[in-house]
């Protein structure tokens, strides 16, 4: 996995088809970097292919094919030329009751189909207030990764996204993010015998705080939600991170 920091735009369930077309017109020629991966709502993916940035999925199912109405398989994603998927986003854990076991099944099949997996983990406000952050992250990681071969981790990145920081305009301090990333790296080294896993930060990353966040020395990039929908903000984030 490359050492350059990456920016993943998690566009969630936003934009109509005509808004997507305008967005693509606006970014045309302005994003020319392999470090940028945009994850649009999946029905819009064909519009995003064959551009000078990468495209990812916000979610994937498991199994290669079959009677799973409404789902997209990793094999199908791979056949479209997609190379990356998010898994276990907190909004899916919350609204769709995704369990660590389900997330694990998705990871196994995504890896089998040569997708890079971005495993999202994070604590709620309540868990943070109860000083349970490390415990919660450990449970999510162990549940999602149990039984995987250490070399599978070559194709997995962790996105640390505190649930309370998502869409709230609040972020942990740089020291808190740094220390949590250090904790995750040590934990994965200890539990899975895999040194220096790539960890991204997500949660209210925007054009105003990116320069400050980018001072954190042990992160590998960012998962950007709301700000990825606004071209000006996204371009500023890319400028800071890619030209660092
Ligand atoms: P946000 O979302 O940047 O809007 O906080 C991040 C995410 O949910 O991945």
Explain briefly what this protein structure is.
The protein has 244 residues and is of the alpha/beta class.
Low-confidence parts, pLDDT < 50 over ≥5 residues? none
Got a strand count? 8
| H/E series | EHEHEHEHHEHHEHEHEH
Rg over CA atoms, rounded to whole Å, is 17 Å
> What best-fitting shape do the alpha-carbon axes yield?
globular
The bound ligands are:
2-phosphoglycolic acid
**Biggest beta-sheet profile:** 8 strands, parallel
> What is the distance, rounded to the nearest whole angstrom, between the alpha carbons of the first and last residues?
19 Å
Helix content percent band? 25-40%
In order across it, which strands form the biggest sheet?
3-2-1-8-7-6-5-4
How much of the polypeptide forms β-strand, as a percent range?
A: 5-15%
What is the averaged pLDDT score? Answer: 96
Number of helices: 10
Structural class: alpha/beta
């Amino acid at each position: 996995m490359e050492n350059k920091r990456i920016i993943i735009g998690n566009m969630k369930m936003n934009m109509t088809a005509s808004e997507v077309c305008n967005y693509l017109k606006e970014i045309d020629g302005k994003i020319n970097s392999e470090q940028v991966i945009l994850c649009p709502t999946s029905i819009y993916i064909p519009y995003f292919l064959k551009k000078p940035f990468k495209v990812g999925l916000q979610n994937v199912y498991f199994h290669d094919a079959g009677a799973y109405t409404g789902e997209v398989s990793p094999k199908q994603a791979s056949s479209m030329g997609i190379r990356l998927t998010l898994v276990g986003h907190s909004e899916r854990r919350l609204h769709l009751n995704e369990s660590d076991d389900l997330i694990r099944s998705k990871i196994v099949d995504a890896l089998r189909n040569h997708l890079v997996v971005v495993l999202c983990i994070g604590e709620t406000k309540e868990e943070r207030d109860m000083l349970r952050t490390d415990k919660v992250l450990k449970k999510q990681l162990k549940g999602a990764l149990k039984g995987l071969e250490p070399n599978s981790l070559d194709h997995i990145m962790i996105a640390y996204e505190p649930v309370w920081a998502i869409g709230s305009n609040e972020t942990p301090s740089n020291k808190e993010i740094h220390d949590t990333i250090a904790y995750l790296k040590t934990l994965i080294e200890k539990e899975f015998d895999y040194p220096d896993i790539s960890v991204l930060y997500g949660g209210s990353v925007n054009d105003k705080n990116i320069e400050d966040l980018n001072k954190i020395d042990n992160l590998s990039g960012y998962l950007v939600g709301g700000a990825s929908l606004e071209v000006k903000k996204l371009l500023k984030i890319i400028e800071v991170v890619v030209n660092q």
